[in-house]
Amino acid sequence: MTDSTNAQTDARQRLYTALAGIPAGYVITYGQLAALAGFSRRARWAGQVLKQLPQDSRLPWHRVINAQGKISLPGDAGEKQRALLESEGVTVSDSLRIDLSLFSWQKADTE
DNA sequence: CGTTTGACTTTCG
DNA sequence: ACGAAAGCCAAAC
Question: Which nucleotide is nearest to A73 (CA to C1')?
Fold first, then answer.
């Protein structure tokens, strides 16, 4: 395969690694996740990658929400994500909203 | 190469 | 607090 293909795979891999670093009971926004992977202002791209994420991947994709502290997944998928977060101890409001001041993950702390 | 699209973000009313 | 509009960026057409 070509170098360009490698670059694309590497970019996704970095995002996966960053996502894997999010502990249960915490959430992170698309923008923060992208920045954590080394790509600032790539929030949309991060969302696109998660959408294409295979089901067999064991990554905590449900810990990723938007900057408004709300689940971006439409329909039943959003309800499913809420259930997963609740099961990890994250409090989710009826409007799929989460208190970022309590559950937002900061890598530069607690370690 | 120009246009459209989107699991985003921020600002304004 | 909520919705609309604009801004931003990469991938798909």
Answer: B7
Confidence of residue A44 (pLDDT cuts 50, 70, 90): very high
Whichever domain contains A78, its CATH number is 1.10.10.10
Does the predicted TM-score (pTM) go above 0.90? yes
Question: Helix or strand or coil: residue A92?
Answer: strand
Q: Which nucleotide is nearest to A12 (CA to C1')?
A: C10
Residue nearest to nucleotide B9 (CA to C1'): A67
Predicted local distance difference test score (pLDDT) of residue A67 = 97
For residue A55, report the phi and psi dihedrals to the nearest 5 degrees: -65, -30
Residue A48 resides in a domain: yes
**Which residue has the least CA–C1' distance to nucleotide C7?**
A41
